[in-house]
């Protein structure tokens, strides 16, 4: 049985009826349990009272936009895996989507097989993070926890304890931080982060990376404007230095 056949609840937020029905039919054919919402307000109401494993969220919606829905979800500490679907595929739109809290971003028109692969990948990442097995498998990649300078990152449960505060990480934040931790001490380019963490083309606006780094610094640094652990490597990208040397 393929991973796509594992039952998962997916909320599709799409106001174009033909596209919504097409997604409903094809996702159900793959074994998913699917609920439809045709605007942002309806989606937020459903997400407040029901549990979903993933959300496919159109950006151009009547009323609240997909960006606004994503921002409200994250502000309400709802960290359901979120993939944005939109005809707005410009780099600045991708940047805005990720900044709003999206975990993935798929421009329209898209091939169904690509959407299914990306959705499966999103669910698989969440499964790895939430695995209760704390064995050497590490929830799927061998790094369930990491501690440094009095900080503790719990990758399985998407939590960060830093300076007496507990912070819930989004999948995207956790994946980016995990990649930097796994490559600690090495200069990692923005191009590498775009391709290896976000699976985006290297010509995508790198401000998305910079904005996420700023956010992570607020979480882990004593003085975010003078980072000791998450450093900028001029002309290249970033380097994670856990000892702060």
Architecture overview:
The protein is α/β, with parallel strands linked by helices and 245 residues long. It folds into two domains: 3-130, 3-Layer(aba) Sandwich (Rossmann fold), CATH 3.40.50.2300; 138-240, Arc Repressor Mutant, subunit A (Orthogonal Bundle), CATH 1.10.10.10. The chain contains eight helices and twelve strands. The protein has helices at residues 17-29, 40-49, 66-75, 91-100, 112-130, 171-182, 190-196, 207-220, and strands at residues 9-13, 33-37, 54-58, 82-86, 104-107, 145-148, 151-154, 159-162, 165-168, 188-189, 230-233, 237-240. The strands form three sheets. Strands 2-1-3-4-5 form a five-stranded parallel beta sheet, sandwiched between helices. Strand 4, helix 4 (91-100) and strand 5 (104-107) form a beta-alpha-beta unit. Helix 2 packs parallel to helix 3 (66-75) and helix 4 runs parallel beside helix 8. The radius of gyration is 18 Å and the shape is elongated. The termini are far apart.
Write the layout of secondary structure elements.
Layout: E1 9-13, H1 17-29, E2 33-37, H2 40-49, E3 54-58, H3 66-75, E4 82-86, H4 91-100, E5 104-107, H5 112-130, E6 145-148, E7 151-154, E8 159-162, E9 165-168, H6 171-182, E10 188-189, H7 190-196, H8 207-220, E11 230-233, E12 237-240
Parallel strand pairs: 1-2, 1-3, 3-4, 4-5
Antiparallel strand pairs: 6-7, 7-8, 8-9, 10-12, 11-12
- Main sheet makeup: 5 strands, parallel
H and E string: EHEHEHEHEHEEEEHEHHEE
Alpha carbon gyration radius: 18 Å
CATH superfamily of the largest domain: Response regulator
Q: How many domains would you count in the coordinates?
A: 2
Report the β-strand fraction as a percent range: 15-25%
Broad structural category: alpha/beta
The CATH topology name of the largest domain reads Rossmann fold
CATH architecture annotation name of the largest domain = 3-Layer(aba) Sandwich
Question: Any idea of the CATH class of the largest domain?
Answer: Alpha Beta
Coarse morphology: elongated
**Overall pLDDT confidence:** 84
List low-pLDDT spans.
1-5, 132-140
Strand order in space, largest sheet:
2-1-3-4-5
């Amino acid at each position: 049985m393929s991973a796509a056949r594992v039952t998962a609840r997916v909320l599709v937020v799409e106001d174009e009826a033909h596209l919504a029905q097409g997604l409903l039919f094809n996702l159900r054919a793959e074994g998913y349990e699917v609920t439809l919402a045709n605007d942002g307000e309806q989606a937020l109401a459903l997400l407040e009272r029901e549990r979903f494993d993933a959300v496919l969220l159109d950006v151009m919606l009547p009323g609240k936009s997909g960006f606004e829905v994503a921002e409200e979800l994250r502000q309400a500490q709802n960290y359901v895996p979120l993939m944005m679907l939109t005809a707005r595929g410009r780099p600045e739109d991708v940047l805005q989507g990720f900044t709003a809290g999206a975990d993935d971003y798929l421009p329209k028109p898209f091939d169904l097989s690509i959407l299914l692969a990306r959705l499966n990948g999103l669910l698989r990442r969440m499964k790895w993070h939430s695995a209760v097995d704390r064995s050497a498998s590490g929830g799927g990649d061998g790094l369930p926890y990491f501690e440094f300078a009095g900080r503790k990152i719990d990758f399985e449960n998407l939590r960060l304890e830093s300076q007496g505060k507990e912070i819930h990480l989004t999948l995207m934040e956790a994946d980016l931080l995990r990649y930097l931790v796994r490559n600690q001490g090495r200069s990692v380019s923005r191009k590498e982060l775009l391709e290896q963490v976000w699976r985006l083309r290297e010509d995508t606006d790198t401000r998305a990376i910079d904005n996420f780094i700023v956010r992570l610094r607020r979480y882990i640094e004593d003085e975010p404007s003078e980072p000791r652990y998450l450093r900028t490597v001029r002309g290249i990208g970033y380097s994670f230095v856990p000892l702060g040397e």
